[in-house]
Amino acid sequence: MSGDITVISGPTAVGKGTVVSALRRACPQVWVSVSATTRPPRPTERDGFHYLFVSDEEFDDLVANDGLLEWATVHGVHRYGTPKAPVLAAAAEGRPVILEIDLQGARQVRERLPEARSVFLSPPSWGALVDRLVGRGTENVEQMERRLATAKVEMAAASEFDHIVVNEQVSQTVEQLIDLLGLATNSETEGQS
User: Fold this and answer.
1) Are 44 and 27 in contact (CB under 8 A)?
2) What tens digit of pLDDT does each residue of 176-193 get?
3) Partners of 168 in the beta sheet?
4) Domain ranges in the chain?
5) Within a 10 A sphere around the Cβ of 8, how many other Cβ atoms?
6) Is the CATH code 3.30.2010.10 the one for domain 4-183?
7) Residue-wise pLDDT tens digits, 32-55
8) How is residue 15 annotated by DSSP?
9) Adjacent-strand bridge partners of 51
10) What's the CA gap between 90 and 153, in Å, rounded?
11) CA angle, corner 33, sides to 165 and 128, nearest 5?
12) CA distance 181 to 27
């Protein structure tokens, strides 16, 4: 495998998706894996772009046939997993690969791909994390309580990662990731042509 694989993880509502989307815009050469999930799509999500929305039976088939690099049941309800073949193909092409996954998945990737770099996105404070989750407005009270309980466990695992990046402002966080991962940005690649 010749590509550079980076796992980006962190607690719920820390802004992983927002940061990874901004990183992809700044560095289009980055290949971001699309996770499979059994949860229904949110109103703004597109199948195949945000997630691969699959049935429980389809997910079972991926697990049974070693089709996932990692998978987990998240918040005690829905399953998420990273399809293995596209990740390995992108890495074999020499592309920088980003896996945006939860703590359980990050631990599995560390077992299966110990050479992968791991980055923990941390909120600036616990209060900021709670504000982000509430401000998102996508969960009811019971779901928020479950996510916050999960977030406490996830925050305690930050030291398991190679790097910790505090996500205070998305643009700053993306700059830190670009430096950390040694990526060329849009403006740098345009200046070379």
Assistant:
1) no
2) 999 999 988 776 545 444
3) none
4) 4-183
5) 26
6) no
7) 999 999 999 989 999 998 899 999
8) -
9) 47
10) 31
11) 35
12) 11
pLDDT tens over the chain, length 193 residues: 446 999 999 998 899 999 999 999 999 999 999 999 999 998 999 999 889 999 999 999 999 999 999 998 877 789 999 999 999 999 999 999 999 998 889 999 999 999 999 999 999 999 999 888 887 777 788 888 888 888 999 999 999 999 999 999 999 999 999 999 998 877 654 544 4
Query: Whole-angstrom Cα distance, residue 122 to residue 15?
Result: 9
For residue 122 the two structure tokens come to 């941390």
* Residue 22 to residue 7: CA distance in whole angstroms: 16
Residue 185: closest CA among 49, 22, 42, 76: 22
CA gap 150, 48 in Å, rounded: 26
Q: How far apart are CA 58 and CA 81, in angstroms?
A: 12
Report the Cα 119 to chain-centroid distance in Å.
10
For the chain, helix (H) and strand (E) counts, in that order, are 8, 9
Instruction: Determine the Cα–Cα distance for residues 36 and 78; give it in Å rounded to an integer.
Output: 11
For 41-162, strand residue ranges (E) read 52-53, 68-74, 78-83, 96-100, 117-122
Structure tokens at 176: 């830190």
Q: What does pTM read for this prediction? A: 0.85
Q: Which token pair is 117? A: 């770099």
Alpha carbons 150 and 133: distance in angstroms, whole number: 12
Question: What percent of the chain is helix, strand and coil (3-state, nearest 5)?
Answer: 45, 20, 35
